[in-house]
Amino acid sequence: MYGGHRPPYSYVPKMALIWVFLSFMAILVPIEAGARGDEAFQRPVPGRTWQFPAEHGAHPNYKTEWWYFVGHLQSEAGEIFGYQLTFFRAALRQPDPRARSAWSLHTIYFAHLAVLDPARGSFRFREKVGRGALGLSGAEVGRLKVWINDWQA
Questions:
Q1: pTM score, whole prediction
Q2: Cis peptide before 53 (omega within 30 of 0)
Q3: Which CATH class for the 2-40+50-94+104-152 domain?
Q4: In which region does residue 51 sit, left (phi positive, over 0), alpha (psi from -120 to 50) or beta (all else)?
């Protein structure tokens, strides 16, 4: 794992906090949504017919989805690096078409980037969180485009 090197322990608590938050929201939001009578989100079911490349885009009728990229990079000098980039979309509720404010929040986006340099034994990561309002963060339907501020895939 990680080329014989383990990530620093500071990595674990930050990711753990994200997962705790997502778990909390997964419990809280359905309770709140049921109390308000909001529409339920779709659930994945067997037998779906996939249509690529459109499926790479967002599926706003589902509560949670993510875009996960992992691979290796090689510098011009021949150095090898490993990377992982993930964007998460967590819906808080269905968008309200009657909402008058551009600040109306119904979706939160998270991103995590990690780079491993096995030759130096280093592991670095960065994280971002963004609100799905005002175009600050989002994901397009029908094509792969997801972003949080200046991070995008």
A1: 0.71
A2: yes
A3: mainly beta
A4: beta
